[in-house]
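Memo to structure team: turn this sequence into structure tokens by end of day. - J.P.
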Amino acid sequence: MVHVRPEERLTVRRLRDLAKRSADGALPVLTHFLTPRERRMAEMVAASEGVSVASFGGHSRAERARVMFGGAAGRPEDDDGFGIVCVGASLAREEPPPSHGDVLGALMQLGFERDRMGDILIGGGEIYTFLEGPTAALVLRDWTRAGRAAVRPERRATPPESQLPAPRLAERVVTLQSLRLDAFVGHAFGMSRTKALEPIRAGRVQLNFAVCADPAQAIDPGDIVSVRGAGRAMVIAVEGESRSGRIFVKIGRYI
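Reply from structure team:
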């Protein structure tokens, strides 16, 4: 059972409406792309409404994925019933690769919502994006740049898993006074601990894909923290303490 926070109730209501539509019509119904936490909510809703549920994000280790209510259980991962299109673009070798934020910002400037787009993978001179069909048509027609890089998008078959780029992290070790969310946000995103309180209390910080407004929330290795408009970072490892009691933490900023 997923504990639903007040700010997530609208999401659950929308998911329940889709699940009921599937149950009433005995037909598969698709969501837009969901975060891992939203997928857990979808599974909870499906169980309560008595409908089957399946998910796919365009590749086997997708972070963001579409959910199908009422679909056949155990659908193969290459099933095109999820309406996902892979759009790729090759980068000129002499240009520095764009960041994840560069690509996300360029795509959203084309005029669609974030949930119409799944993962963005960058590496090896290539960009791969996973999109809903109508969004893909817009991207193929109008996407020309990502940061300083010129791009020429094309529809592609999803490459083998071994050829897909892994997320890129800029790693460093910092010392924290305590394993609290506000301390981590401050160091990971280049702001003072006092300044870090502002986005946390404003609901602009997510911990593991759920809004967290508690500055004192404990963090653990493997946690992913995102700040709206600033990007994401991971707690990679806790590496001991200094003589003064400060904690060495390896962090990775997504780039």
